[in-house]
Every structure is written in structure tokens, then in C-alpha cells.
Amino acid sequence: MTNHPVLVSVDVLAAWMGLDRTDHSLPDKHTLEVRTRLLADQLPAQPEGFVAPTPVPELGRLVIWDVRWSATDPTQNHEAYRQGHIAGAVYVSMTSHLAGHGAPAAGRHPLPDPAKFTDAVRMLGLNDGDTVVIYDAVASAAAARAWWLLRYAGKKEVYVLDGGLDAWRNADLPLHAGEVLPRIGSAYLSWGKMPVVDTDQVPEFVHNHGILLDARALERYTGQHEPLDPVAGHIPSALSAPGADLTDATGRFLPAAQLRDYFARHGVQPESAVTAYCGSGVTASKTVLGLALAGFDGALYPGSWSAWSSSRDRPIATGEAPGDMPTDL
């Protein structure tokens, strides 16, 4: 089981930035360190799975990424970021920074090439020793992909802002317009630090009693509606566990205890082998984060349904029943 924090609250991020609710001005560099420590020390203990307010990241070591993206809402884009973002946040592109490009068999959002991802995070201002906070405006479904990739690349001090941009706005905290151009960083990455399952490994994983969770909406799992991929349905033996179930109406994650109950209803126990997939490996990253918040280790199937369904030779199931993975695969 894992117990490394994965979320950061709005209050903690605001304190790390030196933002006082009674004074929204950003402090100058001479008073920032004192102010951040003072604000952080005043905060209460954080819920399970949230990073503690202290120690405060070193001055200049806090990196904020804005992943404004949605597969179904084109307004979640770079222009929306320019219109208003958290102070200092750098725009991160799902397609340019957080995904590679390949044949259909690799899925719609394959993992980026390690060297290209290293170049990308350096262009985005990342240095070794930085603390990274990531947010979006779609209940963390996009931000979780960046969180997962950085964890996969060996970075540990990486947190998703619980509730995202809406939580920041609702706390009456300021937004800045325009573009943030970071100073180029020099981070070194160490690929392969999070578990993955590829297309060829899925049948064996299922045959060995692994739990395969489908993070897409129920109507996509059943095959009733498929807006993105040419084939509808789900991987045989997969259980429907929509990523939207993990967050509440405000986009905040359910408490860790509730998530443990949710995953337990899907058969997940501390010793379970669990893999999450979705349409293209983005929303499933949110499921891996939710599993971590609940104290479970989970693997990601990056290619997901778009990779699995790219070949007519692979079996599919439809309807609400999981179905059975053929034994000859």
C-alpha cells in the first residue's frame, strides 16, 4: 500500500505562495519566505492523502502547472488559460507535452518519448528539487495525467490541487491573465517509476486474477455511446469504475476512507493487483491517483481502449456485465 501524499489543498497552496486571504497582493521576494512560513504554520492538519503545510517549499522551488484540457470540451484550452490562471502557473499542453504520437496500436495519447518529455519539462521550468502543483478545470482528470507522468519519471514532490481552478476561484483567490514564460530548467528524469501494463500484458493480467478498472463513463463501458473511438464496448473482465465517481460535485476528491470503500466494492484489497484504463490513458491516471489516495497501488494501461480496440483480433464485451477474457489469449 502507498501512503505518499498526492493532493494539495487550496489553503496550503495559497500559503506556499504567500497569499493572505485578507491581502491578495503577492509579497515581494524579501518578505515572501517569512510570510509563507507564517501562513503555513497557522494551517490545521491536512486530511489523509494531502501534503502537509510544512515544510514550505524553498524559495523559487514551487512550480505550478495549468493543464487546461478536455477530450469533449474544446473550451478547455490555451486561450482559457490566458484569460485567467493561478499566479505563476505555466500552461501545459496535453497533446504537445504530456503525450507522444504513434500508430493507432499505441492509443490516442501514448506516453511521450522519454528524451522529448525531459526536454518538455525543462522548457516548462522544472528543476531537480522542485515541488510541483498541478491543476485543471475538469475535476482533476487532466491534471492527474501530468501528476502520473512526473511520478513515472521519478519525481515525488508532485501534487494535484484538490478541486482545481474552481476551488481556487471559490476561495476568492486571485487569477492572473496572460502568459507565464518560465526560465528553462535542468531537471533529470528517471523513467519507469510507476507500474504500467501494456496491451499484450492485459490478458495475462486478467487471467492472473488482476482487477481491471474501466474509468470511462458507464455508457461508453456498455457500448451504448462511444463519442471518441471507432469501436464501442469494453475489455472483457473489466469492471466499470467511472473516474467521475471519485470526485464530488465540486470536483474535489472523496475522502480517503470513502474511496477505500468504493474500491473495495470493486474487489480491491491491499494485496490486489489493480490496473486502470480509459479511452486513451488520461482519465485512468485520475483513477490511479484515487487508488493512491485510498492507500492502494495501481498500474496504468496507457494505451487503454483506443489501443485495445485498434485491432479486430482482440475481443470486446458490451453491456453492463464484465464478460470473460478468452483463455486462449
From TrEMBL:
Disordered: region residues: 307-329
Any one GO molecular function term: thiosulfate-cyanide sulfurtransferase activity
Domain of life: Bacteria
Pfam families: Rhodanese
Keywords carried by this UniProt record: Repeat, Transferase
Presence of the UniProt keyword Magnesium in the record: no
Domain Rhodanese: 58-177, 206-317
Record-linked InterPro entries: Rhodanese-like_dom (IPR001763), Rhodanese-like_dom_sf (IPR036873), TST/MPST-like (IPR045078)
The keyword Translocase appears for this protein: no
PANTHER family xref list: SULFURTRANSFERASE, THIOSULFATE SULFERTANSFERASE
Protein name from the UniProt record: Sulfurtransferase
Naturally occurring in which organism (per UniProt): Enteractinococcus helveticum
Native organism taxonomy: Bacteria, Bacillati, Actinomycetota, Actinomycetes, Micrococcales
